[in-house]
């Protein structure tokens, strides 16, 4: 098969969940002897080779403004792909690309779209932004041959909200282990003596609630918050103004060795994401052998298999505070969660399993099961 992928920043790797997904899926499909093309943001790459690791790369420009960059890039990529005769399947990532299904429908291209999370509910999108994401998500269910949800909980929401069936294929991850704990010490941290959060400082990740609760708790450990926003933002600024010396903000960590060690050497991982499906950071935390303290959502419970692989808190006052203090009084229980965390990845979320599911889906589309 010849498969084209639109909607990410590009290949081989630009750090984010989408790019990790595209990179892993491409490499697995190439190994299965399929042809894969990825549409890349021209401005993000200093060099523009036509192929890397046998993945064909097409570099498309974009309007370099926050609100228009991805939209303009996907539009131009769609115009390019619909005139290619060698494409069997076009895979889009992100429901924001829903309107482009009109072009692929007119040109009779077989398409699938991974709709990701509930973008229209995210607090960062207000007014017109929220309405656009809802409309685009609705269009995704009408114009694309197959809608892909990354969790069964997300599939249920799309069925209820848009009366749309979808195929459930999760995200993947690889088990990782600490090999250079000294990298954590170089950041002034002691292995096992900090809680970790990885995520942007945006309202739907509930960093304000987590910081508020940690300020109230009696822990002597630190809270390390990785991630930021690349623009001036009142919400993020308010979080960073905490006077609690236990809470530190290293910002973005681009060095993957350092990031791995931070995950692997945390006492516990705190997950406050609210509106996603199978969250990449949560999977990475499991793959790194973390005890998980997660916001109680249907998405968290699906990934963590109920209470088998994590503990939960709510947005209510003292909920996370109580969970943190419980963990420190019951450290043997924390170690049990850490010891079995990676088995959840090996059972349910390997990249080999994910790639096999995508391959079977694409083959069924080519052979006319989905029309």
Outline of the structure:
By secondary structure, the chain is an alpha/beta fold. The chain has helices at residues 17-31, 69-82, 101-106, 128-143, 152-162, 182-185, 207-216, 234-240, 256-264, 280-287, 298-303, 319-329, 331-348, 351-366; strands spanning 2-6, 35-41, 51-52, 55-60, 89-93, 111-114, 146-149, 167-168, 194-198, 222-226, 247-251, 268-271, 292-295, 311-313.
Notes on the protein architecture:
The chain has 371 residues and is an alpha/beta fold. The longest helix has 18 residues, at 331-348. The model has no long low-confidence stretch (mean pLDDT 92). An 8-stranded mixed beta sheet has the order 3-4-2-1-5-6-7-8, sandwiched between helices. 41% of the residues lie in helices and 16% in strands. The chain has helices spanning 17-31, 69-82, 101-106, 128-143, 152-162, 182-185, 207-216, 234-240, 256-264, 280-287, 298-303, 319-329, 331-348, 351-366; strands at 2-6, 35-41, 51-52, 55-60, 89-93, 111-114, 146-149, 167-168, 194-198, 222-226, 247-251, 268-271, 292-295, 311-313. Helix 7 (207-216) packs across helix 12 and helix 10 (280-287) packs across helix 13 (331-348).
């Amino acid at each position: 098969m010849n498969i084209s992928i639109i909607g990410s920043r590009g290949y081989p790797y630009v750090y984010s969940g989408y790019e990790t997904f595209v990179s892993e899926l491409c490499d697995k499909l190439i190994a299965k002897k399929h042809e894969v093309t990825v549409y890349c943001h021209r401005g993000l790459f200093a060099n523009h080779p036509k192929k890397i690791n046998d993945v064909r790369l097409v570099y498309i420009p974009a309007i370099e403004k926050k609100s228009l960059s991805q939209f303009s890039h996907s539009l131009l990529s769609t115009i390019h792909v619909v005139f290619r005769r060698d494409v069997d399947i076009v895979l889009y990532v992100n429901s924001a690309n829903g309107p482009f299904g009109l072009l692929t429908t007119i040109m009779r291209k077989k398409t699938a779209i991974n709709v990701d999370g509930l973008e229209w509910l995210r607090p960062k999108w207000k007014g017109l932004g929220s309405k656009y994401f809802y409309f685009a998500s609705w269009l995704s269910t009408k114009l694309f041959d197959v809608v892909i949800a990354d969790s069964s909980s997300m599939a249920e929401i799309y069925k209820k909200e848009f009366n749309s069936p979808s195929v459930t294929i999760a995200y993947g991850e690889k088990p990782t282990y600490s090999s250079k704990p000294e990298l954590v010490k170089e950041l002034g941290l002691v292995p096992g003596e900090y809680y970790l959060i990885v995520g942007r400082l945006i309202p739907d990740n509930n960093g304000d609630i987590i910081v508020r609760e940690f300020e109230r708790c009696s822990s002597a450990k630190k809270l390390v918050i990785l991630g930021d926003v690349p623009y001036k933002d009142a919400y993020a600024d308010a979080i960073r103004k905490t006077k609690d010396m236990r809470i530190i903000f290293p910002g973005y960590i681009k060095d993957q060795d350092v990031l791995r060690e931070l995950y692997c050497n945390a006492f516990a991982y705190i997950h406050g994401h609210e509106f996603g499906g199978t969250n990449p950071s949560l999977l990475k935390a499991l793959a790194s052998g973390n005890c998980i303290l997660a916001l109680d959502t249907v998405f968290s419970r699906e990934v963590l298999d109920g209470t088998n692989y994590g503990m939960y808190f709510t947005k209510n006052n003292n909920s996370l505070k109580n969970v943190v203090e419980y963990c420190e009084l019951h450290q043997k229980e924390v170690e049990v969660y850490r010891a079995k965390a990676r088995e959840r990845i090996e059972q349910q979320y390997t990249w080999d399993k994910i790639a096999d599911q995508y391959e079977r889906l694409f083959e069924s589309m080519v052979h006319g099961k989905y029309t």
